[in-house]
């Protein structure tokens, strides 16, 4: 079964699901042959949701800049952002857990998404706007409207979508929220442009500033508000929910498997005492090997994606077994665990599985890290378009887990067991938003 190519029929989209062994035969091909951008734009209805590249061939289009920013500047600056991330994690916990009560029961999905929203906004648009409730409302409402629009239009034939969209309220809500975001960014962009030649002002290190500098460097108008807001929408779309679900799953697994807690805490204490301070640095995060394994195992056993490495073939794709998929085909591979039991398609949770594998195969150690991306680890995709944000995402998840383990015991409410993971009609993970976790204060 694992050697077979399947044709998956989704509403108005047919996708070839290839065996995982074919990843290297398509994921590394150049963009003018196998396109990630075009797939994303069509799959997520970018024309109405602003997700994916609106201009895949333009190297200076907002989406390509987002990818460049995440791959270069954002990843290089993780050390710079890490203290702010830890500060935000601490203050978010402080604000949401009662100080005069030793136990707080939280709806863990909303808590984790809210946490990631807060700390990513500080990195993308600066601390002030990150704390502005109107900005948050515009971003959240835009996200909800986009999901609604994509969900509805997906059920309409491709040729009918432009007409159908004119009769729907969703696209108008999306646009209205884009305008709200633009109104909030306008004064900041204007001020930054006015200050750009002033030597006495240290420029902030956020995405807005990177955008201005990049525009100037390539001779584009930095005062392009609508393109900047589209880029911010795409950054939010890529980073917040995915990281939030990673944090959520780690918290749920700590609560479900308390037998790992002592080992995880002992490792944390050892790393902190070697480091000589409570605050974690990038090198100390790398030493949290058991925690890394636990996070990776959490992501494996409740996968955010059933399918991964979605691409569109712009030209025919010839596979090594002689199969030729025609131009305009969509392809992907299953991202489920290749080593899962054939019958049950699962493997039991083993939090230190990857830690042991690193020790047993030191020459292959990097393959077992939570940030690794390869045919056996598809949580972050694979090839040149594998997730460039994964280094920051794992740093954020570790910072959140470290804070939670240090200050709280995590437990599930006695009447609540985690549900079997659910995936919707287009095979996207739909987390249990009612799942609660109890945070019992330790220190
Ligand atoms: C646990 C958190 C995350 C998960 C599970 C995740 C997962 C993914 C996956 C599966 C892809 C598609 C890769 C492929 O098709 O080969 C992707 C792409 C991408 N992700 Fe992430 N991601 C996460 C966090 C982030 C963060 C924090 C950012 C940025 C702030 C980010 C930015 C991106 C971008 C820009 C792309 C598109 C890359 C390209 O087209 O070349 N991601 N991510």
Structure write-up:
This protein is of the alpha+beta class. It has a single domain, classed as Cytochrome P450 (Cytochrome p450, Orthogonal Bundle). The protein is 51% helix and 10% strand. Strands 1-2-8-5-3 form a five-stranded mixed β-sheet. A three-stranded antiparallel β-sheet has the order 4-10-9. A two-stranded antiparallel ribbon has the order 6-7. Helix 5 packs across helix 17. The radius of gyration is 22 Å and the shape is globular. It starts with 5 loop residues before the first strand and ends with a strand. The mean pLDDT is 93. The site of protoporphyrin IX containing FE (HEM) has 28 residues, from helix 4, helix 12, strand 5 and helix 17. Keywords: Heme, Iron, Metal-binding, Monooxygenase, Oxidoreductase. GO terms for molecular function: heme binding; iron ion binding; monooxygenase activity; oxidoreductase activity, acting on paired donors, with incorporation or reduction of molecular oxygen. Belongs to the cytochrome P450 family. InterPro entries: Cyt_P450, Cyt_P450_CS, Cyt_P450_sf.
Gyration radius, in Å? 22 Å
pLDDT averaged residue by residue: 93
Oligomer state equals: single chain
CATH topology name: Cytochrome p450
Total beta strand runs: 10
Strand coverage percent: 5-15%
Provide the succession of SSEs.
EEHEHHHHEHHHHHHHHHHEEEEHHEE
> Which structural class should the secondary elements be placed in?
alpha+beta
Which overall shape is indicated by the principal axes computed on the Cα atoms?
globular
Indicate the percent of residues in helices: 40-55%
Superfamily (CATH H level) name: Cytochrome P450
Question: What's the number of domains?
Answer: 1
| Biggest sheet architecture | 5 strands, mixed
Stretches with pLDDT under 50, minimum 5 residues: none
Ligand kinds: protoporphyrin IX containing FE
Tally of DSSP helical segments: 17
CATH class: Mainly Alpha
Distance between the termini: 52 Å
Spatial strand order of the main sheet:
1-2-8-5-3
């Amino acid at each position: 079964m694992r050697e077979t190519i399947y044709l998956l029929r989704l509403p108005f989209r047919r996708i070839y699901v290839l065996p995982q062994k074919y990843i290297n035969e398509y994921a590394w091909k150049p963009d003018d042959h196998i396109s990630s951008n075009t797939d994303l734009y069509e799959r997520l209805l970018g024309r109405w949701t602003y997700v994916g590249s609106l201009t895949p061939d333009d190297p200076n289009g907002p989406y390509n800049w987002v990818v460049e920013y995440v791959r270069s500047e954002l990843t290089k600056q993780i050390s710079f952002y890490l203290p702010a991330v830890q500060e935000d994690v601490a203050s978010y916990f402080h604000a949401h857990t009662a100080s005069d009560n030793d136990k707080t029961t939280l709806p863990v999905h909303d808590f984790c998404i809210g946490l990631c929203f807060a700390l990513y906004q500080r990195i993308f648009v600066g601390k002030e706007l990150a704390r502005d409730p109107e900005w948050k409302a515009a971003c959240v409402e835009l996200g909800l409207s986009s999901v609604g629009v994509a969900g509805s239009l997906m059920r309409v034939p491709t040729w009918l979508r432009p007409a159908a969209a004119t009769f729907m309220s969703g696209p108008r809500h999306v646009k209205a929220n884009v305008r709200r975001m633009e109104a909030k960014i306008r004064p900041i962009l204007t001020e930054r442009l006015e200050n750009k030649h002033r030597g006495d002002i240290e420029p902030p290190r956020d995405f807005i500033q990177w955008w201005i500098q990049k525009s100037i460097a390539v001779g584009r108008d930095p005062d392009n508000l609508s393109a900047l807001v589209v880029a911010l929408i795409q950054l939010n779309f890529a980073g917040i929910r995915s990281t939030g679900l990673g944090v959520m799953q780690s918290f749920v697994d700590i609560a479900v498997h308390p037998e790992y807690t002592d080992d995880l805490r002992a490792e944390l204490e050892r790393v902190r005492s070697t480091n000589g301070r409570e605050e974690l640095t990038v090198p100390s995060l790398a030493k949290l090997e058991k925690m890394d394994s636990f996070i990776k195992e959490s992501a494996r056993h409740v996968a955010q994606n059933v399918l991964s490495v979605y691409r569109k073939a712009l030209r025919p794709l010839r596979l090594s077994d002689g199969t030729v998929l025609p131009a305009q085909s969509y392809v992907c591979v299953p991202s489920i665990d290749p080593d899962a039991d054939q019958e049950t398609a699962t493997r039991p949770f083993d939090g230190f599985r990857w830690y042991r594998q690193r020790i047993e195969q030191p020459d292959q150690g990097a393959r077992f890290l939570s940030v690794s991306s390869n045919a056996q680890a598809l949580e972050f995709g694979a090839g040149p378009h594998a997730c460039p944000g994964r280094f920051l995402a794992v740093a954020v998840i570790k910072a959140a887990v470290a804070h939670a383990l240090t200050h709280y015991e995590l437990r599930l409410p006695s009447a609540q067991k985690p549900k079997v993971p659910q995936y919707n009609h287009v095979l996207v993970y739909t987390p249990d938003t009612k799942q609660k976790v109890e945070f019992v204060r330790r220190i």
